[in-house]
Predict the 3D structure of the following.
Amino acid sequence: MEKFIFYFIAMVMVVFSIMAVSSRNIMRSIIYLLFVLLGIAGIYFMLNFYFLGAVQMTVYAGGVIILYINSIMLVEKIGEPMDAPKLLHQLIAGGISALGIGAGVFAFSNYSFTIAAEESTTTINDVGTAMLSYGENGFILPFEVVSMLLLAVMVGAIVIAKSYHQKENTK
Amino acid sequence: MMNLTIISEWLSHYIAAEVAFYAELIVIAVIYLSVFALLGLFLVWLERRVAGFFQLRLGPNRVGPMGLFQTLADALKLVSKELTGTSKADKFLYKLAPYFVIITALMAIAVLPFSGELQAFDVNIGLFFISSVSSISVIGIFLAGWASNNKYSLIGGMRTGIQMISYELSVGMVVVTMATLAGTLQLSELVALQKDGWFIFTGHVPAFIAFAIFIIAGTAESNRTPFDLVEAESELGAGYHTEYSGMNFAYYFLAEFVNMFIISAVAVVIFFGGWLSPFGITDNIPYVGVFWFLFKTMAVVFLMMWFRWTFPRLRIDQLLTLEWKYLIPINMVNIVLMALLVWLGLTF
């Protein structure tokens, strides 16, 4: 049953990835991409990595896709099909994709995977402890760097919003 | 994962163990689906009765006892209606959009602990799972707004999207506040920790502030009055579901009410002790928890309905000001306050 579900999700992901890049309608492309991202979340849930699966759903499916939808709604003529790219561009993109698939298949077939002895799962407590520990396998430095980055982004957003608002008032 | 052991035991009496496992999954899915549908119908009936109560009239009272079957009749009417759509709209996305909303509501209901025994999916990230699943339902609303090819739908969809994304932040921060007190996100553990006192009492001041913010943000997230400018009838028709008819419309309608139930249920779990009875009077009897859980949830639902018939609608700028200039700063201070109280051991 697990195998069946895995192959089903994998097939859905492959089909929708191809459809996402080949669709002429940009809104549909995004929805196909959403299915791919949800498929990844599904595989995380199958592996019992619930935290990672939920993060995948929140950040990618819930955050990035909504950002895409919002930004694409600002684009002109979203309802109409886009022009097909030039043949040369198609060939280059196809070549690079084929190269990527080749490299992936080569790497997977040459790497000897070891099957984990027992099923393990990461609870949210483990994640939290690892994020804030500065001992071995601790992630305090990246955690703080990311929080600094987020703070900078927030301050930047406020500054931009504020200066715009003042200019409008003085007019 | 499955806590509903009685069903699996009962099934394995009759069929082989291999088949029983899958049969169990199907039986539980069917139970949840029917609970979902009945809940939606009941809540719509309750809303109309409460509306009648607040406006000094009767509300539905002809079909069945106290009008209980009125919504069933409405549902039958909706099923039999023609499914219309606009020309030049993206048919595929138009048809797809309601399912995002309804499926995410159904997924969120799976983790709710109806009692100690009745919980389908007790995952250790429980509350985070609910918020991550419900963040997907916004996509369904955006899609409905865009794929309807209608300006009212588009404006309504954009408003809902902005509103839900904004208020999701407040709900998330309240969850963080209560997780600071509890030290877990697993719903069954959250309930078990409240055996000696509900979190709204043990967390006293910050928990009470958190509850106030949660009920405001929760009302906004389920797009109910006073935050229903998404479907402000006087300006936008019906908002993002203007172009939907029949069952497709009913999906949105149902999802809205079930989302209200989910938000109330989460409030009950993180503030009012979930399925625990007051002072532990019936905690030793199995399955009575279901009654307490539903009773408390319905009390919170009633509070949200009370809001609906009491407060006038907010404008979009007032809505965003409320969230970004008041709720978020209060919330941030509240998290620090809660952390301080937990650190100093000042919680009961």
